[in-house]
């Protein structure tokens, strides 16, 4: 696509690309708590809330019109599978800074997904330049199983941080554990130091 940014996650440049305790898979498994959400895009919105000057709500068309980034990344699920060289297309997290004024007190982001799913990230990790709200996977729109219409991709943390069926982001001054983080998973989730459970 014209004018599109292209990002390669730094983890893909490691000599050893598979973190300890992981094995490779050739296809992206489907994994989530509960069933697959079927989202009606005419009703879908992306909400930026919490510590922002004013809440911002975007329709699918507005979200889809934002500048796009193409991302190559390896992904690592805490249950032990890793998939190398996945390709995503979507909206870089940093684009959100142009949509809402984030207050200086904000230090954490809580990403919300359908069915009350949440996951928490420090602002530094949320705004890392390989973090993308993906609309596309391998050149096609994301399928319902993988989070249609929009799913987050946070390549450098375990894949549970990569919320599917995203509905928005809330900025916070204090950290608040998300869904998996309060059901036994680590608060941070670095695959290279095996921050699996906590
Ligand atoms: N909304 C939502 N997103 C989620 C989850 C979930 O339970 N709900 N599980 C996470 C986990 S544990 C993994 S491994 C990935 C799997 O993504 P995939 O099904 O596209 O492979 O989604 C993540 N995103
Ligand atoms: Mo996972």
Structural descriptors:
198 residues; mainly beta; Sulfite Oxidase, Chain A, domain 2; seven-stranded mixed β-sheet; five-stranded mixed β-sheet; 2 helices; 5% helix; binds ligand MTE; binds molybdenum atom
User: What is the H/E string?
Assistant: EEEEHEEEEHEEEE
Major pleated sheet: 7 strands, mixed
Q: Termini, distance in Å?
A: 41 Å
Low-confidence blocks of residues:
none
The percentage helix is under 10%
Bound molecules: the ligand Nc1nc2c(c(=O)[nH]1)N[C@H]1C(S)=C(S)[C@@H](COP(=O)(O)O)O[C@H]1N2, molybdenum atom
The average pLDDT is 97
CATH topology: Sulfite Oxidase, Chain A, domain 2
Radius of gyration: 16 Å
Overview of the structural elements:
With 198 residues, the chain is mainly beta. It has one domain (5-26, 44-193): Oxidoreductase, molybdopterin-binding domain (Sulfite Oxidase, Chain A, domain 2), CATH 3.90.420.10. The chain has two helices and twelve strands; from the N terminus they run E-E-E-E-H-E-E-E-E-H-E-E-E-E. The chain has helices at residues 60-64, 123-126, and strands at residues 5-8, 23-24, 45-50, 56-59, 69-76, 81-92, 108-113, 117-122, 132-137, 140-141, 151-153, 166-172. Strands 1, 2, 5, 6, 9, 10 and 11 form a seven-stranded mixed sheet that branches. Strands 4-3-12-7-8 form a five-stranded mixed sheet. It is globular. The mean pLDDT is 97. The site of molybdenum atom (MO) has 6 residues, from loops.
């Amino acid at each position: 696509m014209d004018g599109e940014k292209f990002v390669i996650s730094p983890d893909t440049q490691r000599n050893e690309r598979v973190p300890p305790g992981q094995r490779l898979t050739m296809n992206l498994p489907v994994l989530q708590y509960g069933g697959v959400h079927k989202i009606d895009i005419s009703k879908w919105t992306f909400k930026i809330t919490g510590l922002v000057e004013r809440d911002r709500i975007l329709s699918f068309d507005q979200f889809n019109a934002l500048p796009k980034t193409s991302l190559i990344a390896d992904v690592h699920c805490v249950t032990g599978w890793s998939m190398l060289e996945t390709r995503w297309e979507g909206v870089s997290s940093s684009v959100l800074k142009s949509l809402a004024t984030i207050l200086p007190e904000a230090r954490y982001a809580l990403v919300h997904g359908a069915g009350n799913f949440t996951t928490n990230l420090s602002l530094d990790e949320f705004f890392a330049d390989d973090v993308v709200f993906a609309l596309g996977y391998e050149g096609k729109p994301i399928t319902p199983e993988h989070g249609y219409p929009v799913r987050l991709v946070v390549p450098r943390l375990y894949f549970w941080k990569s919320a599917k069926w995203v509905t928005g982001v809330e900025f916070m001054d204090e950290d608040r554990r998300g869904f998996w983080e309060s059901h036994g998973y680590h608060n941070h989730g670095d695959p290279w130091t095996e921050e699996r459970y906590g």
